[in-house]
Amino acid sequence: MEAIANFIDTVNSYVWGSDAVPYPPVLLLLLGVGLYLTIRLGFMPIRKIPYAFGQLFNHQHDKDEGDVTPFGALMTALSSTIGTGNIAGVAVAIAVGGPGAVFWMWMTALVGMASKYAEAVLAVKYREVDGAGRHVGGPMYYIKNGMGSKWVWLGFVFAAFGVLASWGTGASIQANAIADAVRANYGIPAWATGLVLAGAAGAVILGGITRIAAVAEKLVPAMAIAYLIAGLICVAINIEGVPAAFGQIFSQAFGFREAGAGISIGLILLAMQKGVARGIFSNEAGQGSAPIAHAAARNKDPVNQGIVAMLGTFIDTIIVCTITALVILTSNIIDPSCAPFVRPELLTLPAGCETSSPLTVSAFEEALPGIGNHIVAIGLVIFGFTTILGWSYYGERCCEFLFGEKSVLPFKISWILVVFGGACVLLLERDPEVTDVVTLFWSLADTLTGLMAAPNLIALLVMSPLVAKMTKEYFDRKDTPDA
User: Fold this and answer.
1) Can you tell me where the transmembrane regions are (predicted)?
2) How many beta carbons lie within 10 A of that of residue 475, not counting itself?
């Protein structure tokens, strides 16, 4: 067990980073590809943000082939990205990397928009229609159809990592996090939460992408708006701390501490490492998951759907993560003059994971005593449940690519069982061996999620000339409205 754990930790360090590997190759590749695509596209994803919001509710593609509306595809993709990373990930980035980490999260999101855009463009262009009439796509399909038969194996590698990661990150881990939050705050036993989660998830995912999107279209905006309102109330209560919060973000991003202390190169590197890692972990730009949802959109124009898709990164990180950061930085629990930047007791996290954050709870409680913890707990529950829904579709499509259409129903059944089992693991947590296994599984799921990105990033680089060409043609067309 120890040897396996050490191996997984080593691999994980090369994906997401660690003290021994502060600049992991996979993480740098994710950021590098995003930056390359941003430059190659002439910064279009950033320049066209207002245009993208205008296309979000454009009904010109309502009669196009596809399974869900472009908005429904975006909400399905967002359902899997707006989650624990927006609550706990931001807190950990600030606690370890300092307020400056928030700036690098923003930069990661801005270049990540190009990755998310390119993924969706290729997903729609190279999607297929399966025997059941579903529009299926994603990295495995654009690798197969866009890069040629000699690269099919790479598509299978992505799909294999996708199935494993979906069972881990999407099903068991999210169910475990939800059950833990519900039990800690409301005393509800894990098995009961597991039953409710499995039943609710089954009722949605058995209906396919149409039902998942229908739920996501309602639940994702509602939960995001509610969380943003709660966060804005907290910020308004501590409004006098907002200028100082932004000052800390910008100054520490470039290594400045308090007046007279000069520039700290170590502080710059720490802020960059934690900000980039948590930013990519939160919005999944370049990972290859979101294009699986966007491939089902009723949109015959790949570039148009890509423009809608890139908003996912903007909403997830620039909007939602920023609210969490401001709630934390305007509270009285941050000490920007030292590292770690908060009291040690606020950094206590469940073994091997980041499913809850005492730091975020403390920040909300400081502004809203008595109800702040409920805001975070309910947010974790709803965010986690929608992540279960979104990842179920990703895993289903990867499974179909590997084993054919007949594997879809068995996969859905396995998903429901894994969701229940993930919640019920808490019943055995007092057993040290079980605790070690759970910690190991968290680390493995984290690693697999990151490894999904490698085949996808190769495809994005190889087909970047095509994406750039299609983009130019789209905006050169005279019939492109308000472009």
Assistant:
1) 20-39, 151-168, 188-207, 219-239, 254-272, 307-334, 375-395, 407-428, 448-468
2) 14
